[in-house]
Amino acid sequence: MKHFFLLGCMLLFLTPFEGFTKMLPDWSKTGHRVVGAVAQKHLNRKARKAVEKILEGETLAEVSNYADAIKSDRNFARFSPWHYVNYPADQQYLDSEPSPEGDVVMGIEKCISILKNPNTGRDEALFYLKMLIHLVGDLHQPMHVGKLEDKGGNDIQVQWFGRGSNLHRVWDANLIDDYGMSYSELAESLPRWDRDKIKSVMDGSVYDWVEEVQEVTNRVYESAESGEKLSYRYRYVWWDTVEEQLLAGGLRLAAVLNEIYG
């Protein structure tokens, strides 16, 4: 009985921690909602009506974390590789060896293809629309376009305000969550780009966007070394980049949805 009691105590403490590790959010829940909120403002009339119909009145922000929520269900395990892409920093995506399991670029392209298909049913459209909303956000989190050898920065251990973290987690969650703004506050505080800038950001394809994000990623890799202590200075230097990536992600999500439904 003593052994069973000790085993039960170990499971009680270990199981939630292991589950939390596996379900660590991407771009933080707040970040994904910001991307959704920005996109919502830039939908054209046809896209807005189509999206409202499929989502039954829910907003892009409200459903933006669906693709993370389903990670706890093994039935959706095949979609896990869609959240990121890892390829050499000195290569372009189309010149690199594709992952046989898929990646965020393939995932976005698959979602677009299914949503454009007039024979796609409502339930299938709902699923892949929610996935697309999330994946475009993931694409614009720099460490989701990382190096295979360090798992997109997950193996680069750092301190964040005295707490153990890693470079991937700093960009996934720490920078945004520790800033303390709600998603609506953060969305409203983003830079105000003029029409020409907005148009230029919304132009292009997912293949153009992944190369642009990789350029940011390469700079992020140079921003910290393993074991480094990061705090206010790091956030001050990189916060503009965080805002720019959130804004670009939202604008490009709108561009994709406008192209699909407009």
Automatic annotation (TrEMBL):
Does the record carry Glycoprotein as a key word?
yes
- Entry keyword Hydrolase: yes
Q: Which organism is it from?
A: Robiginitalea aurantiaca
Q: Which UniProt keywords apply?
A: Disulfide bond, Endonuclease, Glycoprotein, Hydrolase, Metal-binding, Nuclease
**Pfam families named among the record's database cross-references:** S1-P1_nuclease
Name of the featured protein:
S1/P1 nuclease
Q: Which InterPro entries match?
A: PLipase_C/P1_nuclease_dom_sf, S1/P1nuclease
